[in-house]
Amino acid sequence: MDPRQQQMPPQQMPQQAPQGQAPIASQGQQAAIANVTPDVPLATQTTLLISEIRDNMVIMKDGSFRAVIACQSINFDLMSEQEREAVEYSYQNFLNSLTFTTQILIRSQRVDIGPYIDKLSQIRRNNDNMLLGVLMDDYIDFIDILSQEANIMDKSFFIIIPYYSSADAEKILQQTKNIFKSFSKEKEPQVTRIDRATYDKATTELNNRIDSVVSGLHQVGVNSIRLNTKQLGELFYNFNNPDTAVREPLVDFSRLATTYVKKGTPNAGQ
Q: pTM higher than 0.70 for the full model?
């Protein structure tokens, strides 16, 4: 045997692999291999604070709950001075009546003019009036050029209503966080475990809070609706895919049905 092998410490002796197998790396070699291993890219789930969306609620990774209400805007600038004062007074009473925290979110997104231009082109093809056809051609060209030169934006308004399982948790987690955009350094999505009693209590409390908010907004003159599970999924998908959100509107307020009674016009036949 070579004398140099006898002087080598036992812990530095290379390990002999069995015949037909690859050689076994030492601890130092394994550490070096681990250091050069590339990092696994983060999945989309790890960049959000959302654990699950179910029963018209958003369950966060910290065990808290969220509900989202979509609101229809009102044209405050076209109101008279008396109407503005009434809206401001009603909105002030609405804010003072809240006994829980809320988040008001205003989102601006680009409007897709393509379907509108296609509709105008179809009307133009079905029109036999020559003068009206020339005017429509000029109008279609004007809208097309305008959409290419400037971004036509639309605003969406949402109110996020939170619920925490305890007052201490709400105090600790009360920070200015945007639930639609966050980052987590964890590489594996967490599983949030909530017992049935806490879940049922959160469902009941959120329903009560939503009724309070919708009723208060109705007094201001703002129509609102709670987003269901499907709409919540579309909302978060559109936030992370802005190009798709241009082609997929979230809520059609023209079909909005409210449970609150409004003053109607008398029937002329009676």
A: no
